[in-house]
Design brief:
Layout lengths: L11 H13 L4 H16 L2 H11 L9
Helix pairs in contact: 1-2
Length: 66
């Protein structure tokens, strides 16, 4: 799996909420944010969602080679 660095841009209120939620879980804010992001991506990009996205762009792998 490749590793890519990225930066989240949060408002002061969002950062405060992130720190508070991370503290409840007894995690560093960076770790908590990464877990939330991964969970969101996992649920947002299910195989069905990927198929619909591919169909909308005309690149459905189920169509076979062109």
């Amino acid at each position: 799996m490749s590793r890519e660095a990225f930066t989240l841009g949060l408002t002061a209120r969002q950062a405060e909420a992130l720190r508070a939620l991370a503290a409840l879980e007894e995690l560093p804010p960076e770790v908590y944010a990464a877990e939330v992001l991964v969970k969101h991506l996992y649920h947002a990009y299910t195989p069905e969602v990927a198929r619909r996205a591919a169909r909308s762009t005309g690149s459905d792998p189920a169509d076979g080679p062109r």
